[in-house]
Amino acid sequence: MRHLKSFHVFHVAATSATFSEAASKLNITHGAVSKQIKVLEAYLAHPLFVKQGRNVMLTKEGILLKGYTEQAFQALETGVAQLSQLKNQHLEVSCEPTLTMRWLMPRLSDFHHQTGTDVRLSTAGGPVNLGVSGLSMAIRRDDFELEHDYRKTHLVDEWVGPVFSPDYWEKVKNDLSSIKKLSSLTRPHAWNEWMANYGGVLDFGQTHQDYAHFYFCFQAAVDGLGAAIGSYPLVVDDLKRGNLIAPFGFMLSGHRYILLSEDKTMSEHSVKDESEAQFTQWLKDNLSCCEPRLQEQTGLYY
Q1: Residue among 124, 222, 144 nearest 182 (CA)
Q2: In 134-262, which residue ranges form alpha helices assigned H by DSSP?
Q3: How far apart are CA 152 and CA 262, in angstroms?
Q4: What is this structure's pTM?
Q5: Closest Cα to residue 235, out of 140, 182, 152, 161?
Q6: Percent share of the chain, pLDDT over 70
Q7: pLDDT confidence of 267, banded at 50, 70, 90?
Q8: Which ranges in 230-272 belong to alpha helices (H)?
Q9: Cα 259 from Cα 237, distance rounded (Å)
């Protein structure tokens, strides 16, 4: 393409208040920025900027062009990130922090042993931009609006219920109103949602303790400081070890854990697709074991 350098200078200048700011970002002079903009304006036969005091403003033609350069350079960044992934023989995976620490990390060595593929984890929740951030995949709870048209693979339905340390349950089981409800600022409505779905017939009192992250709620519950609303994959190991119990069982929350990945065309398939497919299947197989089973004697799911 002709004048690719000029398009890049325009792209940076279009998101800057002044040409001097753009020059600083590009590590070139103010005059070099002005020259490249003039070259592009002559090539396109349209003005792209107008002066407004000491600042510059985009014309209507400049605004139109900015939309296209944003798409073009974001696509280029995505391509560079994917090339980087091809060079590095590993998967970059983003996962929700509590699921990472309480479920995924203790099992990840098993995946590496089976496949020889190295999975590098980063922790985050909510929206994600896979290509720009250099990520192969992202594991999320589907409690937010997707901003990109990614492939969504269903991993497991979420089951939730109150969890207690055995000693703490012995202290409060005859007076449920004395229970301290442990809550997370990241899921502030977990208790109210569970109570509403359970039927709202239990009096768990008003005493509560808030923590910055969901992970701390479970650690506090294990330490006997109160009761937390447990998402089954996040507490399954402590349930098996006897560190936590779930006297009221678990119920479906209406949410799921999903895996987000690029929805590639045939021409876009990379050498990492086999590793991504293996990791996807491994996640599905292992998370399928993280659903409670109906206990006929109680009628509850544990």
Answers
A1: 222
A2: 166-172, 190-198, 214-222, 232-241
A3: 9
A4: 0.70
A5: 161
A6: 93
A7: very low
A8: 232-241
A9: 22
User: What is the rounded distance in angstroms from the CA atom of residue 288 to the CA atom of residue 89?
Assistant: 28
Number of alpha helices (DSSP H) and beta strands (DSSP E) in the chain:
12, 12
Determine the length of the chain.
302
Q: Within a 10 A sphere around the Cβ of 295, how many other Cβ atoms? A: 11
Average pLDDT over residues 33-58: 90
The token pair at 63 is 């605004």
Strands (E), 126-266: 137-141, 151-163, 181-184, 208-211, 227-231, 251-261
Closest CA to 71 of 161, 132, 114: 132
Q: Which residues pair with 249 in a beta bridge?
A: none
For the chain, give the mean pLDDT: 89
Name which of 192, 191, 184, 181 is nearest 97 in CA terms. Answer: 184
| Whole-number Å distance between alpha carbons of 253 and 59 | 50
* pLDDT band (50, 70, 90) for residue 210: very high
Q: How many CA atoms lie within 13 A of 243 on its CB side?
A: 14
d(C-alpha 285, C-alpha 294), whole Å: 20
As a whole number of angstroms, the distance between CA 278 and CA 260 comes to 15
Task: Read off the tokens for 187.
Answer: 């899921």
Put residue 298 in one of left, alpha, beta given phi > 0 → left and psi -120 to 50 → alpha: alpha
Contact between residue 287 and residue 233 where contact means Cβ atoms under 8 Å apart: yes
> pLDDT tens, 103-123?
999 999 999 999 888 999 999
| CA–CA gap between residue 197 and residue 49 (Å, rounded) | 57
